[in-house]
Amino acid sequence: MxxxxxxxxxxxxxxxxxxxxxYFSDGMSLMVGGFGGVGAPPGLVQLILDQEIKDITMISNxxxxxxxxxxxxxxxxxxxxxxxxxxxxxxxxxxxxHEGTLAVEFVPQGTLAEQIRAGGMGLGGxxxxxxxxxxxxxxxxxxxxxxxxxxxxxALTADVSIVYACKADTYGNLMFDKSARNTNPLVAMAGTIxxxxxxxxxxxxxxxxECIVTSGVxxxxxxxxxxxxxxxxxxxxxxx
Length: 240
What we know:
The protein has a domain at 25-106 and 157-224: Glutaconate Coenzyme A-transferase (3-Layer(aba) Sandwich), CATH 3.40.1080.10. The protein is α/β, with parallel strands linked by helices. It has helices at 17-20, 42-50, 71-75, 91-99, 109-121, 184-189, 230-238, and strands at residues 29-32, 56-60, 79-84, 103-106, 125-128, 142-145, 148-154, 158-169, 174-175, 191-202, 221-224. The radius of gyration is 18 Å and the shape is globular. It is built from 7 helices and 11 strands. Belongs to the 3-oxoacid CoA-transferase subunit A family. It holds the Pfam family CoA_trans. Keywords: Transferase.
């Protein structure tokens, strides 16, 4: 996997899918934006599959559906370790967990979002009280603050973060499409390398600054998406 110092300087952050492939490797940690598959970058997920990358530690809100979003990586058994808030929409994830081929760490959704945000902001972690007095606190470090006990939820980062946006400029400033925004802004902040798959790429200076959600300072590379039919995704999720 290439580092920032090994990557050649670019006049634009836009690269091809073939060029993006160099940033994925066996055994990497991968953070994926999206919620139930919506907002996950379809082209980059497929690229990882095509490259036959394996032994991935994946951090994502969920495992999507078997053939939607990051769920495809689970179904193809490319992920060996997972940190997520739930896996219930992907039976393959549950099957692999019970077989012992997929290690799963469940984290409450709000806590997971805060751990990712902390990683992107350079914090060591966050203090949470959800789960105190239950099996959740097993093995967790604790602290007392103002006479109250908290567990330490460590910050989360990844070797590579992949996100999906509806529009970007060539510097990597990102705009998102309504609810497809979901976890993408947080995930974009927390990758050592962040690659954004984008529907439309425009010159710097043409985006309304008030509409930019993720600053290009967090984005290393952008790739052109072939797009995804979200209506088809919704129908597939509903089994129609």
